[in-house]
Amino acid sequence: MAKTNTEKIEELSARIAEPFPLINYQLGELKKDIEELKQLAQKLTDSTHETNRRLAAVEQRSSALEKHSDRTWQVWLALLGALLALAVAFFKK
Prior knowledge:
By secondary structure, the protein is mainly α. Helix content is about 90%, strand content about 0%. It contains two helices and no strands. Helix 1 packs antiparallel against helix 2.
């Protein structure tokens, strides 16, 4: 089976680090740092997805409220028109 580039790099890093304990230690620390960064990136990605989900819910609610507001405004305008028509009819007599 062919090795991936990552596997080749890890194998070469291990070969180079064997005779040098300090390099081996630093390599281990760097791998820990990489894992921590991966975890942090995953948390940020999850947080972004959650924020996007909440934003979509807020936009949906906002749209529903806007429609309700428009309907309420139309009812008030219709009522005002009806009252104006009644006033004109009343004063014409």
